[in-house]
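Translate sequence into structure tokens.
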Amino acid sequence: MTYGYIGSMRTRSGRRDDVVAILLSAAGSLRELGCRSYVVGLAADDPDTIVVTEVWESKEHHDASLRSPGAKEAIAAAMPMLTGEFTSRETTVVGGLGV
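Result follows.
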């Protein structure tokens, strides 16, 4: 079953663009790991919140991607710029444009 993940993270003031750059730099290699869609967005109501929407072949593909050296490196680089305020929602993707 196709797996969806929607998460948000709050950055320290003034660090949003730095975290966005880290997130986008990793996007190029995700397709080969089983990612169908990876969208990084900015919250309209909060200048420090980033929302990431992902669609994966499976939850196992998503979980494996987080163990990759590139993901570990990106997470380590971003963590000092985050406040620790996160939200997440797992979904079962049933269709739509782009999936």
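Note: The chain has a mean pLDDT of 96.
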